[in-house]
Known about the structure:
By secondary structure, the chain is mostly helical. It folds into two domains: about 1-40 and about 250-460, no CATH class; about 45-245, no CATH class. About 80% of the residues lie in helices and about 0% in strands. It contains 23 helices and no strands. The chain has helices at about 5-40, 45-65, 70-85, 90-115, 115-120, 130-145, 145-160, 165-170, 175-185, 195-210, 215-220, 235-250, 250-265, 270-305, 310-345, 355-370, 370-385, 390-415, 420-445, 460-480, 480-485, 490-515, 520-525. The radius of gyration is 23 Å and the shape is globular.
Amino acid sequence: MSEEKRQIYRESLVKSSFLVGSMTFLSRISGFARDVVFANFFGAGSSTDAFFIAFKIPNFFRRLFAEGAFIQSFVPILNDYKSNKQSELKSFLSYVQGNLSLVLLLIVTLGVIFSDSIIGLFAPGFSSVENRFELSSEMLQITFPYLFFISLTALSAGIFNTYDKFFLPAITPVLLNLSLIVSAIFASAYFQEPILALAYGVLIAGIVQYVIQIPLLVKMNLFVLPKMSFAYEGVNRVIKLMLPAMLGTAVVQINLIIDSIVASLLTIGSISWLYYSDRLVEFPLGVFGIAIATVILPRLSKHYSENSMNDFSKTLLRALKVAIVFSLPAMFGLLVLSELIISTLFQYGSFNLSDTQMSSLSLLAYSLGLPAFILMKVLLTGYFSRQNTKTPVKFGIIAVLFNISMNLIVLLTYLNNPYNGAHALLALATSVSAWIQVLLLYNKLQKDKIISEKIFINKNTISSIISCLIMSIALISLSPNLNYWVNHEYYTRGIFITGYIVFGASIYYLSMKVFKNNFEELIYGNN
Length: 527
């Protein structure tokens, strides 16, 4: 590849990442609006705990079948068919869609039939609170079919991303947020249990999200009717990659589910506090981590299929450097502004000062793991693009076992002597678990000579940390205490928190410039 072509390629990579990141940003903004409505209408209590569990369970499977193991396994094989077996491409898509649909229908049917047992497994503490168990089980029967439609949506997204069409997949999640907002505001009053409206909002969103993919598939001449055969060679290749990849890609989600299981045994509100704080961490994770990983997976798969390992390594290394430089200030910003951000977004209506303080504790703990969550998304592409799913599984098991051990310790100490903030220790265990997995993944890539440079100890990372410390000191010096902050109107809080974020980002950027870090060179590279 000539230098001119390399530069064009790098620019297209950046533009694609920017597009996905921008659309994900809009999705996260609409998600914040959704959560503001949740907090205002329903607060952080028994009914919200019930809904968040009923939503989290199909969402967990979605992470496996959607942007998780399925996509990570499907895209490299699809790329191979696109490059080398064009005549068999539509047959491959037909059988993948048919087999995926069959498996999903089976899972959804079992989920609806055995909703009581599933809630008992994922939220054992619900049985101790009147109506929380029954309400959660009823909502799970409504939300579980969402898994079917959103997974087919993800299949479409994998096709679009392989053909460098990133806009529609990136903007689609906004529809879920809009559906839930409309359900909460306009439909909840028509239910005896108002929060049931959210469960129906989830189901409707899943159907709509899939339907809007169809016109573009038709336009690309890639809309196919499903066929079923697990003997088809391409399907077998996907399954072979996918089964071990489930654990490797879902470690964070498994840890979050474990957090919810243990949190159901803690004080009422723990699940909701974890949900609201996790949502804030999901914002930079989606804008940076998921956006970068989504764009580079097809690129890395292409480099690997062409045996262009030099370009493969450069693409992965640059993605890791960008992830670090953007994730560190996000982490420090959340650490410093945690209470102010949560109060600004959620402390209205049924969401009170205590909920803000408790959610802030878990946000602090999750924030410590934010760079790891983002780096993990990027590092895993370095394995799945090479069709290596076994290594992430081994490291994932280690991370999950660590998290389970820490959660059990927290639970046992809490049951012996209940104390405030136990839920935050669950979040901290998840963050440490993510760092363990990241270090294992990174060290293995170094040993395999896929990554030749040190990404944690270098000029960019050290100057980024120092710049983050300067930014944090500046923000702390300006930030008021929470009691003063909550006395202001919502719009005043919104204006000031936006100003703090812009001010902090500016301080970080200028500090990096002082240390002679050129963002343009970091992103586009000079090699």
